[in-house]
Amino acid sequence: MKIAISSDHGGNNLRKEIMALLDELGFSYEDFGPQDDSSVDYPDYAKPVSEGVASGNFDKGILICGTGIGMSIAANKVKGIRCALVHDVFSAKATRCHNDSNIIAMGERVIGPGLAREIVATWLQTDFEGGRHERRIEKITALEEQK
Ligand code: RB5
After folding, report:
1. Percent of the chain with pLDDT over 90
2. Is the CB of 8 under 6 A from ligand 1?
3. Dihedral (C-alpha) 41, 105, 65, 9: value to the nearest 10 degrees?
4. Does the keyword Isomerase apply (predicted)?
5. What does the alpha-carbon distance between residue 100 and residue 105 come to, in Å, rounded to a whole number?
6. Which of 65, 83, 87, 133 is labelled catalytic?
7. 43-56 pLDDT, tens per residue?
8. How far is CA 71 from its chain centroid?
9. Where would a tag sit more exposed on the chain, N or C end, judged by fewer CB atoms within 10 A?
10. pLDDT in the model for residue 147
């Protein structure tokens, strides 16, 4: 599995923590920055991860900002992206089982690194259930075509 990850300045510390987790778990990933702590605009960092996942270059994406909200809004503007804003382990599992989310967003100012690690590990290791949920994903995709 190939993973793309990025943050804004508000998510730099948690992004480093999550990259350490990915190393520990043996997942390969590409880091889309930022490379220093200067203030940046989160859509600029959501874009390469979201487009990378939507194009199939990456299987999953991880986006982190202060709240996770800006990143999730930006990511969900990209066709084919189902980005879930998650701050608990139950939702991490449910959004893979039911929504087949392909990007997870989290807020460094919302949760601590221990919980964030559990969330990401759960999210990466949970499969989509398919079945009735497949029909619902198809209806989400149909909404994208309405524009
Ligand atoms: C940056 O200050 C902050 O607005 C950003 O990290 C994020 O929380 C936006 O949704």
Report:
1. 98
2. yes
3. -80
4. yes
5. 14
6. 65
7. 999 999 999 999 99
8. 9
9. C
10. 59
Ranges of residues in the chain with a pLDDT under 50 are: none
130 CA to centre of ligand 1 in angstroms: 33
> Pick from 57, 54, 65: which is nearest to 15 by CA?
65
Annotate the chain with DSSP letters as a single string.
-EEEEEE-GGGHHHHHHHHHHHHHHT-EEEE---SSSS---HHHHHHHHHHHHHTTS-SEEEEEESSSHHHHHHHTTSTT--EEE--SHHHHHHHHHTT--SEEEEETTTS-HHHHHHHHHHHHT-----THHHHHHHHHHHHHHT-
- pLDDT at position 144 is 92
User: What domains sit in the chain, N to C, each tagged with a CATH number?
Assistant: 2-145 (3.40.1400.10)
Looking up tokens 């949970």 gives 126
Question: Amino acid identity, residue 132?
Answer: R
Q: What is the pLDDT of residue 102?
A: 98
